[in-house]
Amino acid sequence: MRRRMSLTELATRVDVTRHTLSRLERGDLSTSLGVLARVFAVLGLEEDLDLLARDDELGQRLQDVRLPRPRRSGASDGDG
């Protein structure tokens, strides 16, 4: 909207359908990262692509939860 570009014009410049851009806006995971990169380029935001997941605190916490926890030696083997 800030660039006064219609969805149809953006789709033409990115070389995708309006439906594909709508899916991208909704966060549909079937839309390729290449489409997102082309949209950023058309909008003049290619440098912002690096910032997308820079400080993904939630992602880091989710990843930490999945890490194996070290076993405590002696705590559960009855030697204690």
Description of the molecule:
The protein has a domain at 1-52: 434 Repressor (Amino-terminal Domain) (Orthogonal Bundle), CATH 1.10.260. It has helices at residues 7-14, 18-26, 33-42, 57-66. The mean pLDDT is 84. The protein has 80 residues and is an all-alpha fold. It contains four helices and no strands.
User: What string gives the helices and strands in order?
Assistant: HHHH
Strand content: under 5%
Quickly count the helices.
4
What is the makeup of the main sheet?
Answer: none
Regarding CATH, which class of the domain at 1-52? Mainly Alpha
Strand count: 0
The shape is elongated
CATH topology of the domain at 1-52: 434 Repressor (Amino-terminal Domain)
How far is the first residue's CA from the last residue's CA? 66 Å
The mean pLDDT is 84
Q: Which blocks of ≥5 consecutive residues have pLDDT under 50?
A: none
